[in-house]
Specification:
Elements: H1 3-11, H2 17-28, E1 35-36, E2 38-44, E3 46-47, E4 56-57, H3 59-69, E5 75-76, H4 79-88, E6 92-93, E7 96-102, H5 106-119, E8 124-127, H6 129-133, H7 142-150, E9 154-157, H8 170-188, E10 194-196, H9 204-212, E11 217-219, E12 226-227, E13 238-239, H10 247-254, E14 257-258, E15 261-265, E16 278-282, E17 293-296, E18 300-301, E19 303-307, E20 311-315, E21 323-332, E22 338-347
Parallel strand pairs: 2-7, 2-13, 3-4, 5-7, 7-8, 8-9, 10-11, 14-22
Antiparallel strand pairs: 1-6, 2-12, 15-16, 16-20, 17-18, 17-21, 19-20, 21-22
Helix pairs in contact: 2-4, 3-5
Amino acid sequence: MTELRFTELVRRGQLKIAAAAFLVALFYLPVWGMAADSAVILQYHRFGESDIPSTNVTLEQFEAHLEYLQSGGYTVLPVPHIVAALQAGQPLPDKAVGITIDDAITSVILEAWPRLRAAGFPFTLFVATDAVDQRQARIMSWDDIRTLVDAGVTIANHSSSHGHLWRESLTTARRDIEGAQARFQAELGFMPRLFAYPYGEYNLALHELIEELGFEVAFAQNSGVVSKDADFFAVPRFSLNEVYGDIKRFRLIINTLPIPVRDLTPANPILRRNPPHIGFTVDESVEDIDEIACYASNQGAVQLELLGARRVELRLSEPLQRGRNRINCTLPGPDNRWLWFGMQYLVP
């Protein structure tokens, strides 16, 4: 199989990620430098649309991001290739980066794509199909999306409705997601194998449904670094907007490493108890965990309690606010890089 044919199959989601890992290594390892077992995945939405700053980055910010990625030491890879390598235990280059964009906004094809193409950076576009079918304002057309497919962009499923799927019955959620797959098949000739939860929201039942439907990976919106030990149906991404897209923060997140954890509680991101009793066990490979610090949305630094040598328990000072809440934990790492573990919890 040629590299071109392999890339086409992975981009269209027609080659199982696990089976593809050997080919990933075959075609890419000879040009990689220091091996690593993690990558940073970035999440964008809009470009140069400052009337919607919560999901927009300015063009100046975006150009600064791309310039920094081109500055040396970073390898921007197609997201399916990153996932393939991590799932199969194959090495990635140190400072591997993946770029994702949600919602198929027209500024993607008008502003982001020309700049990404000039930089030689691949990206994945998550499409919610109802908005395209309804020809909503500022949403790309199917012809636009076909143009991106022909150019090598990975197209992925972001549901039909872009609704809060965890609130729906599993029957309704299944119909929504399968409906999007049918539209992709009709318009593009293939069904994506990558999925992103709208708003990054999911419960355990939806998490299981995505796996049952045959997707090979699903992306959330909690900050963090994806590693070989990740939950591949809740892959973290660093979200960027005008507030959180300045170059200082970008330089910080693009160099992060994972904090490998296990036994996270509560396991369900949809909270029934507030404030929650949050805790996790840090892997034995991580040193100096007494230096870990955690921060919660609208609360700042959180009091921590270390139980034994490895268990970290968070003692929130007050209940989390209604809606989505992020909790980020960081730890100083090697070479002036930070280790990072993030969670997103939702209070109904």
